[in-house]
TrEMBL record:
Keyword Cytoplasm: no
Protein name, entry field: AzlD domain-containing protein
UniProtKB keywords: Membrane, Transmembrane, Transmembrane helix
Domain of life: Bacteria
Chain ranges passing through the membrane: 12-34, 46-65, 71-90, 97-114
């Protein structure tokens, strides 16, 4: 089943619900159910954190090295610079993820507009 399988107006919304929200939400509920029973320093939680961090790093690397859409029109140096500036802002301004994301986005957008 693909995005173009059905041509009804409601199909994209159902597709997003079935393919995007439902599978993720199931894992969130499982995490809520067993999360209270797992110690924070347990080996299982360390493994989960490591896998989650590796997945995020992989997605970021893919966006920087093999971008698609309008991001592909930007220079690799701009993408690397924006990521580095966002990481530096994250580290230096209180380790807040939102700060790093906003700084990286501002640099990326400014670079795309000025280019």
């Amino acid at each position: 089943m693909t995005w173009d399988s059905i041509s009804a107006w409601w199909w994209p919304y159902l597709f997003i619900l079935l393919a995007g929200w439902l599978p993720t939400d199931v894992w969130r509920w499982i995490g809520v159910l067993i999360g209270g029973k797992v110690r924070e320093d347990s080996e299982a939680l360390v493994i989960v954190r490591a896998v989650a961090t590796a997945l995020v790093a992989g997605v970021i690397a893919q966006l920087i090295l093999y971008p698609s859409g309008s991001l592909a029109e930007s220079s690799v140096f701009l993408r690397i610079g924006a990521a580095a500036a966002g990481f530096f802002a994250y580290l230096s301004l209180g380790r807040r993820v939102i700060v790093g994301v906003i700084v990286a986005e501002i640099i990326l957008i400014a670079g795309l507009v000025l280019a």
